[in-house]
Design a protein that fits this description.
Layout: H1 7-19, E1 27-30, H2 33-45, E2 55-58, H3 59-65, E3 70-71, H4 74-88, H5 95-114, H6 119-125, H7 129-135, H8 141-152, H9 160-169, H10 172-185, E4 188-189, H11 191-201, E5 210-213, H12 220-230, E6 236-238, E7 241-242, H13 243-246, H14 255-261, H15 267-273, E8 274-275, E9 284-290, H16 292-308, E10 317-321, H17 327-333, E11 341-348, H18 353-370, E12 376-377, H19 378-385, H20 388-391, H21 395-407, E13 412-413, H22 415-421, H23 423-429, H24 435-447, H25 456-478, H26 485-498, E14 500-503, E15 511-514, E16 526-530, H27 549-554, H28 560-574, E17 580-586, H29 599-607, E18 611-616, E19 630-631, H30 635-641, H31 656-664, H32 666-674, H33 689-704, E20 709-710, H34 712-718, H35 722-732, H36 745-768, E21 771-776, E22 780-789, E23 792-801, E24 804-808, E25 811-818, E26 825-826, H37 842-857, E27 865-871, E28 885-886, E29 895-896, H38 901-918, E30 925-926, H39 940-943
Parallel strand pairs: 1-2, 1-5, 3-4, 5-6, 7-8, 9-17, 9-18, 10-15, 10-16, 11-15, 16-17, 25-27, 26-28
Antiparallel strand pairs: 11-14, 12-13, 19-30, 20-21, 21-24, 22-23, 24-25, 28-29
Helix pairs in contact: 1-2, 4-5, 4-10, 5-11, 5-26, 11-12, 18-26, 22-23, 24-25, 31-32, 33-35, 33-36, 35-36
Length: 946
């Protein structure tokens, strides 16, 4: 044999030598069935003719075969326990409230039976200190002190929580009995009770011929069964132990073996089986740190390619997933060099895409049940459409839904609308208050799926969920539990961890992929472990229990130390025969996972003679360093720029917003108005400041539309139309509001803000009335502004939309509504176009620009033109007049601009200078020096600034 020191091979050889051809009466019991398959394969290699094979099984199967009761699954146990609880407590809380602590009780009952604890004793411990003194003569003095030490801090001044805790525990003894009686009525049993009953009823263990092989942490029931068989002299037990962790009391992997070594019955076999293979300088461990899951998988693929190219290939190579969520990605990304893969693990469906989809559907259905008029928001629907392939929805339908939602700024949809747009979702979410009816909907949906269109993993999960939903409905009816939607969601989340797909690959040929537990007793030359982080291996060993830690210790129930020791042994055992261990771990902290290497590896690095090599895989997604960007006015850029000059092909016009953009950052102007790089259109649930301003402007246009003369009586009439005007504005901007549609809280607030703003505008206008409205926003004002360029005279095509132009007597007013934080004061005309000035007032620049447009469009008028700003900051003041004031520094005296003509000459001078610069080909488009302006710039990813 090529590896005679491997545990299963040496065990097979021992069986051949001891029994020759007469091993058919022997039972060989392993921790799991996978080890048995390998043992049978090795054993067959020792015979050159057919012989009766031993009966090879797992401990659980061995015990189950001896009894006539059937093991109940987790779902049945939860329902039956709740039924027992309701018998004892008729006013019990609903099933969903019972589930969390019901799960704890099931685990505790299982532990109590597995460790053969006297139930009446452990249940009585919690009740009172007096009972503690009277009932614990069976305990040693040391055990009594442990329990009393715990209760000294717990009992002296019991608070409400402690009282409720003890009250709950007071029925556990009766609940245990009632629960087991209900199980017995259906000929059902759970694992712990199965082992307890076998220990108590089976008195013929000594007559058995049994080999127990490869065990580590035995429950008291398992230990008693093993000792019962060993007592007859025909049975034996074989351990897989290495000197490295057995002799060192600080090594947690040897915790149980050191205890068994002191046992009169088990001790001799422990000492016989200790080997010394682990701590060898011939072994090699290579550590590879890589970013996140995919980084590790890609690194592993390189190693698999390397091993596949070797003479031995992958026939003696094992991949272990310390984090089983890696499985779908690993299988999806395996290199072409891996021609065959054998997966052996109980894979939790909670990691599967189909399970996640169903959980989203149930959660959404729960929300719809609680809020019957609730609509579905865009993000909820989109998160479900991410699984469109599982829903049978083609990508074109998804794209059409996104386009429809974006174009109409639709964030909320009724079920009726969803039915038209996405019939499959309507089928899954159709109205029903009955949870069982909803379960049938899910069953019918999965049954109707075209399984041929699903990947193998999705297909397996779909089949498992189909069976699960049917069983849930049946169990709800059978045990008369009114399953609420919230109970269904909570139970479904629990089932995501408990329902496992039993992948069982072949043992010969191809790459082996396993979970941690499946590796027990198996040996491979090359082992790759993915996800070897602290928190994955070892996992957090804390557990929820109604049995406090100290009492667990006193009754020899498993504690966190037991869990830690079991996990440690599973790792160190791998190194007995492994020659090359290749380990990846995530070096980036994400969510609740850290980037720390498992402590097992770190301990080996410092304590063993094993050779170590380390490497790091980095994804070089390094941001390009920020650098200065300059765009010249030549070539295509110049062609596009000249479109804003009169007489050009495909002419365009510059707005005051475009000019303000240029003043702030000429490169931003280039991106937006030359290259025409626009922000992608998005659905807006929240209302940003620019949209708020648009809502106000549109509302005022709707309100004053058709009104030419504004009097106090007219204003009084218009006040009754404010609500309609504002809602019409919301509809115009494709925001959902009004009858039959959902007005979400934030939009409702904005609705009220806009209404209040309109009310204040009417009040201000009421103080000025009567006056005539000459123009509203529907009017475009165009001007061809003359400048001198390096190529000669030219005219710049300008435009603007003025919020309102009104007239009283012989006085024209240009009114601009501002919903932001704009000020009405400015320091001087030159500062209005100084992008570096902290005092630059964009809003005043815009007002003077509008005044210029109006005057140019009415050259014969000699009437004074006064620019006014209705800004939100000042609008609510009693003496608000909207006038623009020039105020320098700390000077208290301000110059009120009553007529645009007062500043016209100076303003035209600076405007001409600005326009001349824009079309000056020797002046490049450059970035602003003020990086604060870059913070919310849509082109920040291009410039890589801020």
């Amino acid at each position: 044999m090529s590896h005679p020191t491997r545990f299963l091979q040496s065990l097979a050889l021992r069986c051949k030598e001891q029994f020759e051809e007469n091993c058919g009466a022997l039972h060989v019991i392993f921790p799991n069935k996978r080890a048995g398959l390998y043992f049978a394969s090795y054993l067959a290699e020792y015979y050159d003719k057919p012989v009766w094979s031993p009966v090879i099984t797992s401990f659980e199967s061995f015990v189950e075969e001896q009894q006539d009761k059937k093991l109940a699954d987790e779902l049945q146990l939860s329902f039956i326990l709740y039924k027992a609880y309701k018998i004892l407590v008729p006013s019990a809380e609903p099933f969903d409230a019972f589930l969390p602590w019901g799960e704890m009780i099931l685990k505790d009952f299982n532990d109590i039976d597995n460790y053969l604890v006297e139930t009446e004793h452990i249940f009585s411990v919690i009740k009172s200190q007096k009972e503690l003194d009277d009932s614990f003569q069976f305990l040693s003095e040391e055990d009594k002190k442990i329990i009393q030490g715990f209760w000294q801090g717990f009992l002296p001044e019991p608070d409400k929580k402690q009282t409720e805790f003890i009250k709950t525990w007071s029925i556990l003894d009766r609940l245990y009995v009632q629960f087991n009686e209900l199980l017995a009525e259906q000929n059902l049993i759970y694992k712990g009770r199965l082992f307890r009953d076998f220990c108590e009823q089976n008195d013929v263990l000594e007559q058995r011929q049994v080999w127990f092989a490869g065990f580590n942490a035995l429950t008291k029931a398992e230990e008693q069964i093993i000792k019962g068989c060993l007592a007859g002299g025909n049975s034996d037990i074989f351990w897989e132990i290495d000197q490295y962790y057995y002799q060192n009391e600080f090594q947690e992997a040897g915790l149980f073996f050191r205890a068994y070594g002191q046992d009169d019955v088990l001790g001799p076999s422990i000492k016989r089986d200790v080997i010394e293979q682990l701590n060898s300088p011939d072994k090699r461990i290579e550590l590879v740190s890589a970013p996140l899951k995919m980084g590790q998988i890609m690194a592993a693929n390189q190693k698999l390619d390397e091993l596949a190219a070797s003479p031995e290939g992958l026939k003696d190579t094992l991949v272990i997933l310390a984090d089983e969520s890696y499985l779908p990605n690993l299988l999806d990304k395996l290199p072409a060099s891996v021609s065959k893969v054998n997966v052996t693990m109980g894979w939790s469906i909670g990691h599967a895409r189909f399970y996640i989809l169903m959980q989203k559907i149930i959660a959404l259905k729960l929300s719809l049940t609680h809020h019957q008029n609730r609509q579905l928001n865009y993000k909820e629907i989109l998160s479900i459409l991410a699984f469109n392939d599982l829903l049978g929805i083609d990508k074109a339908s998804v794209d059409a839904f996104v386009a429809h939602s974006t174009e109409n700024n639709r964030f909320y949809f009724s079920l009726q609308e969803v039915e038209v747009l996405l019939p499959v979702l309507s089928q899954l979410l159709r109205p029903t208050d009955e949870t069982n009816e909803f379960l049938q909907i899910l069953v019918d949906y999965i049954h109707g799926l075209d399984m041929s269109q699903l990947q193998e993993l999705d297909k397996s999960v779909a089949v498992a969920l189909h069976a699960t939903f049917k069983r849930l409905a049946q169990a709800s009816e059978q045990y008369q539990v009114a399953l609420q939607m919230v109970s269904l969601l909570r139970l479904f989340k629990k089932l995501g961890n408990t329902i496992k797909l039993p992948f069982t690959g072949e043992i010969d040929g191809g790459l082996q992929v396993m979970g941690i537990l499946e590796t027990r007793n198996l040996s491979f030359t090359n082992v790759l472990i993915l996800g070897m982080n602290e928190g994955s291996w070892p996992k957090d060993s804390s557990q929820s229990s109604f049995v406090p830690y100290n009492i667990r210790k006193a009754f020899d129930l498993p504690t966190t130390e037991h869990q830690d020791a079991m996990q440690a042994y599973l790792f160190y055992r791998l190194l007995h025969s492994t020659e090359n261990l290749w380990v990846t771990y995530n070096n980036i902290t994400e969510f609740n996972k850290n980037g720390e290497l498992s402590r097992y590896i770190q301990q080996l690095k410092h304590e063993s003679a094993i050779q170590f090599a380390e490497a790091s895989v980095m994804t070089h997604v390094q941001a390009e360093p920020a650098h200065e960007i300059t765009k010249t006015k030549e070539g295509e850029a110049l062609v596009q720029l000249k479109r804003y000059l009169l007489g050009s092909e495909n002419p365009r016009r510059l707005s005051p917003s475009a000019l303000n953009t240029y003043i702030d950052c000429s490169l931003k102007f280039y991106f937006k108005y030359i290259e025409e790089i626009y922000e992608p259109k998005e659905i807006k649930e929240d209302i940003d400041p620019s949209l708020l301003g648009n809502l106000l402007h549109t509302a005022m246009e709707y309100l004053y539309e058709g009104t030419t003369e504004l009097t106090t009586d007219t204003i009084a009439t218009l006040e009754n139309e404010i609500e309609t005007a504002v809602k019409s504005s919301f509809v115009f901007h494709k925001l959902e509001v009004g009858e039959g549609q959902r007005t979400i809280g934030r939009q409702l607030i904005v609705l009220e803000v806009v209404k209040k703003f309109v009310v204040e505008i009417l009040r201000a206008d009421g103080r000025y009335a009567p006056f005539d409205i000459l123009a509203l926003e529907s009017t475009d004002y165009l001007v061809d502004y003359p400048i001198e360029t390096m190529e000669g005279s030219a005219k710049v095509a300008l435009k603007g939309v003025i919020d309102r132009v009104d007239q009283k007597n012989q006085h024209i007013r240009i009114v601009d509504y501002k919903s932001g934080r704009d000020e009405r004061d400015f320091s001087g005309i030159p500062e209005l176009i100084d992008g570096d000035s902290a005092n630059r007032n964009k809003a005043v620049f815009q007002l003077f620009y509008y005044a210029m447009l109006y005057k140019e469009n009415h050259p014969d008028s000699q009437l004074p033109i006064q620019p006014l700003m209705y800004n939100s900051k000042d609008l609510y003041q009693r003496d608000f007049d909207g006038q623009i004031r020039q105020k320098k520094g700390t000077d208290r005296k301000a110059r009120t601009i009553m007529n645009y003509q007062e500043v016209e000459e100076e303003f035209r001078e600076v405007l001409e200078g600005l326009l001349t610069e824009i079309f000056n080909t020797s002046v490049n488009f450059t970035q602003t020096d003020d990086t604060k302006k870059c913070q919310y710039c849509p082109y920040i990813q291009i410039c890589r600034r801020a």
